Amino acid sequence: KAGVTQTPRYLIKTRGQQVTLSCSPISGHRSVSWYQQTPGQGLQFLFEYFSETQRNKGNFPGRFSGRQFSNSRSEMNVSTLELGDSALYLCASWGGYNEQFFGPGTRLTVL
Amino acid sequence: AQTVTQSQPEMSVQEAETVTLSCTYDTSESDYYLFWYKQPPSRQMILVIRQEAYKQQNATENRFSVNFQKAAKSFSLKISDSQLGDAAMYFCAYRNPRGGSEKLVFGKGTKLTVNP
User: Fold this and answer.
1) How far apart are CA A24 and CA A7, in angstroms?
2) Which of residues 22-61 of B touch A (CB under 8 A)?
3) How many whole angstroms separate alpha carbon B60 and alpha carbon B114?
4) In chain A, which residues have their Cβ closer than 8 Å to the Cβ of B103?
5) Range A16-33 average pLDDT
6) Mean pLDDT confidence for B25-53
7) In sequence order, what are the beta bridge partners of B20?
């Protein structure tokens, strides 16, 4: 099976812009989670989707949003980008057996 | 709120030696799961080992084993016969399965260097 894929792998944006990141889970997996990884804060949970429903949400401002489609692919959107949003955004999918599979991440740089 | 603490920002080990990475966590739950994830430089995060809290037996996966002390809320990872490919960031993570959530709470990580 193909692993978790994330697109794009790298992004450079300027402050005030918005960005959309995409994640395709492993085939058959219905749960997708998003994490933000920064050197200062480490790995922080953004949100989790299961069967197109947001099941859990982390402590991030409303500028961060997400959704999941019927094919389990997920997108996250960040509006009005700030310098502090520069991070590696990781997506993980779960198909059972208590193991999450992570994608390679999208490296977002905000200038 | 659950928290995970890794008190060792960096560790180093000689090739073929044994190293132990520390992790403590805080939770009021009795049912939970603990994990160690490995993130090599510029590569994907992969699961190293997991432990169910209801199991008293410590998990092992080849050269990797854990010392799970539930009462002390401690979950250390032992890497035996260290190899150069073990060099990576190691993250301890906690999951509370209530409500079916897959949310992981991570520690800040320990950077492991393996010296030849």
Assistant:
1) 9
2) 33, 37, 43-47, 50, 52
3) 21
4) 33, 45, 48, 56, 58
5) 95
6) 93
7) B78
